Amino acid sequence: MKKIFLLFISTLLLSAALRAQDAETRLKTKGIVLTPPSGPIANYVNAVRVGNLLYLSGKGPMKADNTNVTGKVGRELTLEQGYEAARLTAICHLAVLKSELGSLNKVKRIVKVLGMVNCTEDFKDQPKVINGYSDLMVEIFGDAGKHARSAVGMYALPMNIAVEIEVIVEVQE
Amino acid sequence: MKKIFLLFISTLLLSAALRAQDAETRLKTKGIVLTPPSGPIANYVNAVRVGNLLYLSGKGPMKADNTNVTGKVGRELTLEQGYEAARLTAICHLAVLKSELGSLNKVKRIVKVLGMVNCTEDFKDQPKVINGYSDLMVEIFGDAGKHARSAVGMYALPMNIAVEIEVIVEVQE
Amino acid sequence: MKKIFLLFISTLLLSAALRAQDAETRLKTKGIVLTPPSGPIANYVNAVRVGNLLYLSGKGPMKADNTNVTGKVGRELTLEQGYEAARLTAICHLAVLKSELGSLNKVKRIVKVLGMVNCTEDFKDQPKVINGYSDLMVEIFGDAGKHARSAVGMYALPMNIAVEIEVIVEVQE
Question: Nearest CA of chain B to the CA of A126: how many Å?
Answer without folding.
Answer: 6
